[in-house]
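Chapter review: from sequence to fold.
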Amino acid sequence: MDGTFYCVSNGRIFALRPLRGDFNGDGCRNNFDVDAFVLSLTDRPEWDIDFGDKYGLNLLGIGDCNEDGVFNNFDIDCIIDLLINDATPCGDEGYTICEGEPEGCGEMLSGGGESSGSGGVAAMESSQSDDCNEVTDTDMEHFWTMVTARCGRISG
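The token string follows.
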């Protein structure tokens, strides 16, 4: 269980996976995740209150970087490598529905680590359309309300 959310609607299958290393739940992987990452290792109950339960984050999905099936100190090196070498930009401009991957990976830390928005969500469709509109509504509560209204809450 890596936290992937599967949704079948109108003949399409959507797989929404948590962004590995996004410990603060803002939809980005960058230097703003460091404090939440440390908290998740040192005080799991507090992390659950501040981030996990609040944003519906699956710690195994975002933290098991070495893919051994558990989140623990053996994931530290891999997470640090992701934060330094593969940070993701925040905000709508970095995410498109069809591509499913943020553009300009690695620019956040080299650009001073400034966040340009509240985060983004990338969704991969099983059959990609030609209409690759940018995701403009990154409000997580609204996003999950819409997904669960259309698909129900099905976890994989």
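Two observations follow directly from the output. DSSP finds six helices and three strands in the chain. The radius of gyration is 15 Å.
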